[in-house]
Design brief:
Elements: E1 2-12, E2 18-28, E3 32-36, H1 43-50, E4 63-66, E5 69-73, E6 76-77, H2 81-85, E7 88-91, H3 103-108, H4 117-122, H5 127-139, H6 155-168, E8 173-177, H7 185-202, E9 205-210, H8 213-219, E10 222-227, E11 230-236, H9 242-249, H10 277-287, H11 300-304
Parallel strand pairs: 3-9, 3-10, 7-8, 8-9
Antiparallel strand pairs: 1-2, 1-4, 4-5, 5-6, 10-11
This protein binds adenosine-5'-triphosphate.
GO molecular function: ATP binding
Protein name: Phosphonate ABC transporter ATP-binding protein
Organism: Marinibaculum pumilum
Amino acid sequence: MAAISIQGLSKTFPGGYRALDDVCFDVGSGEMIALIGASGSGKSTLIRHIAGLVQADRSELCCVAIGGEPMQQDGRLTPRAKALRRHIGVIFQQFNLVSRLSVMTNVLVGMLGSIPAWRGTLGLFTRQEKLLAMQALARVGIEGKARARAGTLSGGQQQRAAIARALIQGARVLLADEPIASLDPSSARRVMETLASLNREDGMTVIVSLHQVEYARMYCPRTIALKAGEVVFDGASTDLTAARLREIYGDASEELILPGLTDAAPAPAGARAGAGAPAGQAAAAALAVPMRPARHTLEVAAGRT
Ligand SMILES: Nc1ncnc2c1ncn2[C@@H]1O[C@H](COP(=O)(O)OP(=O)(O)OP(=O)(O)O)[C@@H](O)[C@H]1O
């Protein structure tokens, strides 16, 4: 059964702008997919629909289902939407942490949907819950920052704290909306490695929207490309060469390619379904990415499924 199934999804904003146009695709459980597209192509809008944060245009053909259960249908959220959202972690470009609170507290916020409201309001978390938060922080490699104020962390560390919050929520699907757009290359790689490791080792289904196709080729076996709200490519990331991108986007393809990309397309190295080592190493070399095995084991999500 598909982890995510999207049929006939269109979105027209007030004023008549059609941001998504009859989008259809399925995402298998445990896939890691890149969402690529020039600015304004509809990536964020699509992610927000999958997360159940926005309602699609009314149409009998429209359905967004999570794990086989409709989240929205005919342009309306279903009664199951709230429960289904608990399985979906959403990570945004701007980390969405509360700067003045500790990293630990920010991560524990991920539990608010599963504990009594009064405890959440008073910030009363059990020892076990705090232990899970520490495990989640260890999983993303920043357990040493648990007591620091979130605002003092680097951008990449804040992004990893946001991933830890999604982990503690018990999410089995991770939607990351341009999670590396504000980061320097080294922090970007660490965040992508973290996402790939959760996908590879824990079977987390991941959709990550990206501005640069090299990261898609490096970490995601499959890429879906959008142009003006339409799916214009859905296939192996390695097939999305610079030439193919130019064919699809014309001059706008330049914003999707790091300078110096050649068409000797490397295979994705980081993720579950595409561990082609030699080609992956070529990609790593192209991006100056240090190839190293993931160090952590996921205790948190495993204990909460
Ligand atoms: N609330 C809204 N009201 C009206 N138009 C909107 C709204 N949200 C998005 N749009 C428009 O829909 C289109 C798609 O926007 P979206 O943010 O999904 O693109 P994107 O691919 O994520 O772009 P970027 O890479 O620049 O973040 C854009 O033209 C945008 O201006």
